[in-house]
């Protein structure tokens, strides 16, 4: 039996008067807390929910997921009860962009539900064949992981600098292996019809195919390049810009 919905979806700041719900999807190695805290500072028209994957936080005792599409199906089961009564949008960063995208695609296909807007961050389009030089499990050492993270920008600097980095290696590698099970082939027709915005850092050398996201939706597409690397959004001023941008996008959509 899967995890209870309340363990998968984390809403730290419930807002019954909210007009919209924003569902956030974490980066590789990440938990739900960072984005769940957005609910405290985002506009009061929004209620923020953040996805918690197996093997971390209150799901610590659960085994890490190994099948990308099983994760998506589990998330959909948890989200369905809270997506029926209010418009919603998805935001994903890095690995979270791909989980958000496939969750949106399967929601539309199987339940005729679609986010108002899909916001992706620090991620190449899902059909772009760009792969990181991921070390194999057998090659893992703390120094090798440190070098990989520092070189490729896949994890925030504060985690890289943490003296207990080795404790985070299993979570990070579980998510890297999870991404190995994700394959998406572009189709003749766009799988989504919602608007899509892609954010990326100006110094992020990993992102070579962000513009190709426009092929997955028949809705409008925008690309925003912001100062910084793969984790540009950790900067508080940029994070605030993104939250304000999301709010304005959703408010404008309801006026159209």
Task: Describe the protein's architecture and organization.
The protein has about 260 residues and is α/β, with parallel strands linked by helices. It has one domain: 3-Layer(aba) Sandwich (Rossmann fold), CATH 3.40.50. It has 9 helices and 7 strands. The protein has a 7-stranded mixed β-sheet, with helices on both faces. Strand 4, helix 5 and strand 5 form a beta-alpha-beta unit. Helix 4 packs across helix 5. The radius of gyration is 17 Å and the shape is globular. The relative contact order is 0.16. The model has no long low-confidence stretch (mean pLDDT about 85).
Question: How many strands, what sense, and barrel or not for the largest sheet?
Answer: 7 strands, mixed
Q: Please identify the structural class as seen in this structure.
A: alpha/beta
CATH fold descriptor: Rossmann fold
- For the secondary structure, the number of strands is 7
CATH homologous superfamily heading: Alpha/Beta hydrolase fold, catalytic domain
CATH architecture: 3-Layer(aba) Sandwich
* Overall geometry: globular
Distance between the termini: 43 Å
InterPro entries: AB_hydrolase_fold (IPR029058), TEII (IPR012223), Thioesterase (IPR001031)
Enzyme class: hydrolase
Subunit structure: Interacts (via C-terminus) with FASN.
Family: Belongs to the thioesterase family.
């Amino acid at each position: 039996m899967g995890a209870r919905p309340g363990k998968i979806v984390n809403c730290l700041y419930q807002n019954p008067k909210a007009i919209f719900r924003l569902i956030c999807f974490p980066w590789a190695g990440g938990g739900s807390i960072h984005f769940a805290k957005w609910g405290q500072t985002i506009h009061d028209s929004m209620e923020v929910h953040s996805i918690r994957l197996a093997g971390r936080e209150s799901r610590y005792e659960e085994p890490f997921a190994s099948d990308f599409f099983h994760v998506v199906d589990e998330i959909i089961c948890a989200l369905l009860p809270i997506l029926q009564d209010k418009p919603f949008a998805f935001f994903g960063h890095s690995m979270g962009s791909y989980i958000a995208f496939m969750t949106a695609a399967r929601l539309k296909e199987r339940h005729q539900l679609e986010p108002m807007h899909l916001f992706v961050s620090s991620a190449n389009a899902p059909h772009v064949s760009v792969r990181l030089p991921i070390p194999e499990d057998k090659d893992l050492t703390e120094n090798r992981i440190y070098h990989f993270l520092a070189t490729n920008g896949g994890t925030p600097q504060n985690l890289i600098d943490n003296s207990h980095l080795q404790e985070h290696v299993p979570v990070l590698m579980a998510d890297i292996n999870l991404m190995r099970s994700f394959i998406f082939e572009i189709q003749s027709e766009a799988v989504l019809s919602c608007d899509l915005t892609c954010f990326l850092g100006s110094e992020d050398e990993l992102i070579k195919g962000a513009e190709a996201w426009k092929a997955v939706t028949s809705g409008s597409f925008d690309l925003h390049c912001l100062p910084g690397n793969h984790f540009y959004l950790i900067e508080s001023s940029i994070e605030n810009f993104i939250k304000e941008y999301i709010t304005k996008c959703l408010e404008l959509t309801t006026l159209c």
